[in-house]
């Protein structure tokens, strides 16, 4: 239940050994005419240990949503730091390969959808759902975006950020399919609320729904260039 313990430990080992590997080991390799990068090989070896650990742990966590979600969150944070801080190469083995394996991946999709739907329930039942966060700042709030629409698009963006480093396009497309389902679900929810408001089509909530639709359509159009 604490994958961050070993993930953080590995990041510390990589960071703590970097200077020694660069100053002492790399010159020996360079002198021998080797193309090996000592730091990267050290990181690769430690990541292989993590892959073994994950392969052993994941089957025990698959049906505990809380623990499984926590593991995925921690792995994604680990991967982000591994690449951005320590210069790990995308061609090397990574935790995303383990998360892409069929049983694990399908579970990830399932819990991602479950928690996204829960988030949508809470955002639409919020008292501030149809109020713009920036209603008092005219130059920021030209589109008068209700809070629920902005939160929903942030939710989609966060999901993209979580799956964007998956190693294969087919897996990314399955996540895109989930996002399309969520967009359609949100559309249905907006339609249901709109039907309740048809008698007051110039009312506050009806206008907020139209603003939400316009905002979502505009943002999706902006995202159209994102392969």
UniProtKB/TrEMBL annotation:
For this record, an example GO cellular component is: Dsl1/NZR complex
> InterPro entries annotated for this entry?
RINT1_Tip20 (IPR007528)
What name does UniProt use for this protein? RINT1 protein
One BP term from GO: endoplasmic reticulum to Golgi vesicle-mediated transport
């Amino acid at each position: 239940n604490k994958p961050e313990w070993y993930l953080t430990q590995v990041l510390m080992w990589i960071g703590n050994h970097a200077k020694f590997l660069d100053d002492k080991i790399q010159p020996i390799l360079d002198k021998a005419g080797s193309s090996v990068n000592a730091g990267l090989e050290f990181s690769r070896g430690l990541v292989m240990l993590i892959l073994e650990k994950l392969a052993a742990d994941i089957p025990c966590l698959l049906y505990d949503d809380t623990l499984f979600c926590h593991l995925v969150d921690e792995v994604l944070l680990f991967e982000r730091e591994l690449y951005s801080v320590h210069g790990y190469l995308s061609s090397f083995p990574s935790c995303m390969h383990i998360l892409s394996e069929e049983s694990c991946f399908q579970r990830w999709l399932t819990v991602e959808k479950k928690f996204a739907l829960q988030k949508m329930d809470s955002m639409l039942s919020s008292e501030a759902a149809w109020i713009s966060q920036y209603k008092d700042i005219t130059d920021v709030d030209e589109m008068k975006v209700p809070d629920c629409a902005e939160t929903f698009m942030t939710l989609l963006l966060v999901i993209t950020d979580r799956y964007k480093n998956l190693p294969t396009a087919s897996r990314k497309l399955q996540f895109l399919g989930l996002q399309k389902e969520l967009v359609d679900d949100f559309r249905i929810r907006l339609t249901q609320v709109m039907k309740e408001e048809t008698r007051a089509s110039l009312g506050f909530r009806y206008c907020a729904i139209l603003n939400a639709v316009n905002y979502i359509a505009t943002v999706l159009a902006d995202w159209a260039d994102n392969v």
